[in-house]
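To whoever picks this up:

The nightly regression suite flagged D-alanine--D-alanine ligase as changed. Nothing in the input moved, so I suspect the structure step. Input below, exactly as stored in the fixture:
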Amino acid sequence: MKKVIALLTGGTTGEWVISVKSAATIAQNLDTNKFDVYKIMLTQQGWFYEPADSVKVEVDRNDFSINLKGRKITFDGVFIAIHGAPGEDGKLQGYFDMLGLPYTTCDALTSAVTMNKGYTKAIVNGIDQLHIAKSAQIFKGTEYSLEQIKKDLKTPYFVKPNNGGSSIGMTKVNHVSDLQLAVDKAFKEDDQVLIEEFISGREFTVGVVKLDGQITVLPVTEVETAKEFFDFEAKYTPGVATETTPAPIRTETRARVEEIARNVYRKLNCRGVVRIDFILSEDEGDFYFIEINTIPGQTATSFIPQQVAAAGMKLNDFYTKLIRETIG
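Regenerated output under the current build:
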């Protein structure tokens, strides 16, 4: 018996463009022998299923069903492919929890907490061999002193919206005189801003997923870019960044990274596939946690598809296992 899966895409932030591309990759690689897939678009205008041969059908949000030519279709589970709000911040997860409908991502609490970079770092702080950059968190509408922050933190800084992804609103600040501009830019995206000391080292990202009941760490990707940092353009424009999967790191470093990544996944009570960004200082030295993405991109150029291929798996099999693990 085929499972009926809703593939949920779109969203209400600037990341909806990436979400649509991610959903296209997922749709192409879901096994049609095992799953009946209905792609549902969520926008500020509404939630719709768009069949190829007719007008779009609005989703009944009372039970997350659709009515196709007089036939009511309900779902066995939801593959959430929305980056940013409301797919990655816990809102949809809470809605589906109330309906008793399983989904492919972390639960509502983990999703909400991990959208806040400051809160996430407070939770993972203390994991063996994991380090965190010194930082300050400021809030719109409350008093803060940039002069004090300039004294407390060494330049360069990374200034970023505390909730958000795809490096939108983020700035690398090399001179203290540019801090105010960077803060203003970040506040356009969020009411909370994180100012962190820059960590010098090599930048990496790694996918972690529970498959067949086991926490699996995918091959690590090293990210190198000629730009100041790995920003939105570098992430999503082919050729701007060099991504090497698997990363050229020593066997013992790889083992240490795997152990830390598994511990982060456990400590944050993750489900489904997540991606952890980190820096190794100096010569594969200290592991500095940057952030975690609980709904990582699945576009043709995204890291997870690269890492799945490097692990010797087909995306088709990967998504099948992911659905079986999270939806049943």
